[in-house]
């Protein structure tokens, strides 16, 4: 059985401010236990990164990665239109993230990790 994941083509908001996480993926992330944030350690191409995982209070809990996210964007050189793959890995709850961009390979467009 495949481990939970999501892929997302990055819009300007995800590049400039924070990564908005699909709400249905929240079930695979740690509970914020009465607060609105928790640190999330993620394997990013062999390097451990820490992101601040936040949710709003109330019914509209819109999950996001904030602190640490802009540093990852800068370090990877992410741009609007690039894609990320965020997934749970063996040893759940552990996570990894990888960046992808479109390339042409033998005349065909495809996504490649970078």
UniProtKB/TrEMBL annotation:
GO molecular function terms attached to this record: DNA binding
Entries under SMART domains matching the protein: B3 (SM01019)
Alphabetized InterPro entries for the sequence: B3_DNA-bd (IPR003340), DNA-bd_pseudobarrel_sf (IPR015300)
Pfam families membership: B3
Gene Ontology CC annotations of this record: nucleus
The keyword ATP-binding is annotated on this UniProt entry: no
Name listed for the protein in its UniProt record: TF-B3 domain-containing protein
Stretches assigned to the TF-B3 domain: 6-101
Subcellular location: Nucleus
Keyword list, A-Z: DNA-binding, Nucleus, Transcription, Transcription regulation
């Amino acid at each position: 059985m495949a481990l939970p994941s999501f892929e997302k083509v990055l819009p300007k908001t995800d590049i400039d401010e924070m990564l908005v996480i699909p709400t249905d993926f929240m079930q695979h992330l740690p509970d914020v236990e009465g607060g609105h944030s928790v640190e999330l350690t993620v394997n990013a191409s062999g390097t451990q990164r820490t992101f601040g995982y936040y949710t709003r209070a109330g019914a509209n809990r819109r999950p996001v990665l904030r602190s640490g996210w802009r540093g990852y964007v800068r370090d990877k050189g992410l741009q609007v239109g690039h894609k990320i793959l965020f997934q749970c890995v063996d040893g759940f709850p552990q996570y990894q993230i990888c960046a992808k961009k479109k390339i042409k390979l033998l005349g065909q467009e495809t996504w490649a990790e970078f």
